[in-house]
Amino acid sequence: MLGHSFAGAHDRVVVTRTDQAGVRITAIDCLDAELPFDPERNTASRAVLELVLLANGEDQGFALEVHKGIPLASGMGGSAASAVAAVVAANALLSTPQEMEVLYAAACTGEAAASGAPHGDNVAPSLMGGLVIAPRRGAPVRVPVPDWLHVGLVHPHCRLETRESRAVLAAPFPLDQVTAQLEGLALVFSGCYQGDAELLKRGLYDVLAEPRRAPLIPGFDAVKEAALDCGALGASISGGGPSVFGWFASRADAERGVASMQSAFAGVSLASDAYVGPVAGPKAEVI
Fold it and tell me: What domains can you pick out in the chain, each with its CATH number?
């Protein structure tokens, strides 16, 4: 229900209006794997199909070219990025452009084509930029963050499918753990609104998903400890993993943090890529 964008790896989707009704994919540029051309199974095309439906079935067709820049199954929001890019581009071609709430619903439907559920934690920040609350219904809500707050993210060269990482969360959580997590969330929100690093540090933890997902990520404990040792306000799993992130009080701290995190992944024989940028990251735009 909460996520943020960051500058770095990104997807691009080229959308062209066509005389033929419907949505089709004409090209996919992806080095990681073969992605489906079926409009119902690809996140980008499925999102545009839903957008057309929500826009009262506007009688026009779209052709899509998908260019993947975000690694697949990385915990970096790649499926949502394609869905959002396609929706934003297609919306610019509609005779009646749709409001944010409609774009959000359409992109969430596209996300479900890949992950199995229409969750918006990656969709919302891709649409709006920065740190964003992703509600089940209604438009997303932007949360202000201080300019000095930076994210350092390290993506190890391995894959963890979203469906697999979601499966380990199926069992119920004890009430005391849920209460502890809600306390942390409240502290994070307060720290963001007040620009208070100490409040962020008190609240930036995960007692729900992290303990269950950590065993799926080689070297996770050492990588998290490396981030904290370099001054991270908190560190945990990015999305469903295997990427790991830390929030830092400056870009310099984040740069040091990702270097140490990469060394920790190297300790378990995993090469990795590192990204650093403001938590108040960019949104999807038409270029």
Answer: 2-133 (3.30.230.10), 145-278 (3.30.70.890)
